[in-house]
């Protein structure tokens, strides 16, 4: 099997690192218009790199791609890859105006269209889902925040996609969190929202959202999303008479009420986990690896359905569009 990784920035290198380590039988190539990134990746992973997808297809006859570029570029790359009869794995897209065309094209050509939703592969999410199924009479409070300039400390926030109003930082957080929130608590039926810009960041979109959301399950929760928290936070409480769960987003920060012990007990779901010191403690590599495993299994014909899809994401992005309203 031959796979091309398109976009050789931080996420492209993460996918390459995991593919190289866990799937040595796969032939990998890199694609990036920047010569410095090509040279870096060629040295790090000892693979061929190319300036364009067209060149990679011609020289190596790749069968599939992993798209790790800025979300605003995904439309053209996804459609180009499908038109070249390549299976597609893509990081979160944030925009969905081309989804119908992409899904139809993939179906016509019998190609796989795989969309990342990393947190769905976290073991903590499975625990939440099981707990809520056992005790659906709960509420929750969830805060996600990180100071935008700290997202990529090696570059200015003004130089990557979160500075763009169309693919802004709060929008990305919602796109990461809403799939698992909807899976655990049910689809969002209605919401009340307040949003504002209160930072001095050079952005032209809100940096703080406060929501009260109601799910089709009847569960009501509060959700606060911002890009101005100087301490990177994922802070969740799930609360009910029979259920109490708290989580700080890290593998070591999950606690659940134990009725017999009458206290909160730490839950160790990982015997070990892979992390990257360049990122927040809430970002671990294990879930990224699980996505890659699912994609490779799909390509090999070992599975036919996946945890997430463009169809599901279409509804999530429409919901985010409602949150944002008119940002023009």
From TrEMBL:
InterPro entries: Gfo/Idh/MocA-like_OxRdtase_N, Gfo/Idh/MocA_Oxidoreductases, NAD(P)-bd_dom_sf. This is Gfo/Idh/MocA family protein. It holds the Pfam family GFO_IDH_MocA. Coiled coil: none annotated. It comes from Carnobacterium antarcticum. Residues 1-94 form the Gfo/Idh/MocA-like oxidoreductase N-terminal domain.
């Amino acid at each position: 099997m031959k796979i091309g990784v398109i976009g050789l920035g931080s996420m492209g290198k993460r996918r390459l690192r995991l593919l190289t380590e866990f799937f040595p039988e796969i032939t990998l190539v890199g694609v990036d218009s920047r010569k410095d990134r090509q040279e870096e990746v060629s040295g790090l992973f000892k693979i061929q790199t190319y300036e364009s997808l067209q060149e990679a297809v011609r020289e190596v006859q790749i069968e599939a791609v992993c798209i790790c570029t800025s979300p605003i570029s995904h439309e053209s790359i996804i459609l180009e890859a499908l038109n070249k009869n390549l299976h597609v794995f893509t990081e979160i897209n944030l925009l969905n105006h081309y989804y119908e065309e992409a899904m139809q094209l993939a179906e016509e050509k019998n190609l796989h269209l795989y969309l990342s939703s990393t947190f769905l592969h976290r073991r903590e999410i499975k625990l939440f889902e099981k707990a809520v199924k056992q005790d659906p009479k709960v509420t929750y409070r969830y805060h996600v925040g990180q100071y935008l300039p700290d997202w990529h400390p090696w570059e200015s926030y003004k130089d990557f996609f979160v500075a763009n109003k169309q693919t802004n930082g709060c929008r990305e957080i919602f796109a990461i969190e809403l799939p698992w929130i909807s899976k655990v608590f049910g689809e969002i039926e209605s919401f009340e929202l307040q949003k504002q810009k209160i930072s001095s960041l050079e952005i032209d979109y809100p940096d703080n959202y406060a929501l009260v959301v109601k799910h089709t399950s009847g569960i009501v929760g509060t959700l606060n999303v911002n890009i101005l928290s100087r301490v990177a936070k994922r802070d969740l409480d799930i609360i009910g008479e029979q259920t109490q769960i708290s989580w700080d987003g890290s593998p070591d920060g999950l606690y659940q009420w134990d009725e017999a012990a009458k206290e909160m007990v730490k839950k160790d779901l990982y015997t070990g986990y892979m992390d990257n010191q360049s990122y927040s403690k809430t970002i671990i590599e294990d879930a990224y690896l699980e996505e890659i495993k699912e994609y490779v299994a799909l390509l090999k014909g070992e599975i036919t359905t996946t945890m997430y899809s463009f169809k599901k994401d279409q509804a999530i992005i429409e919901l985010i569009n409602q949150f944002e309203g008119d940002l023009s």
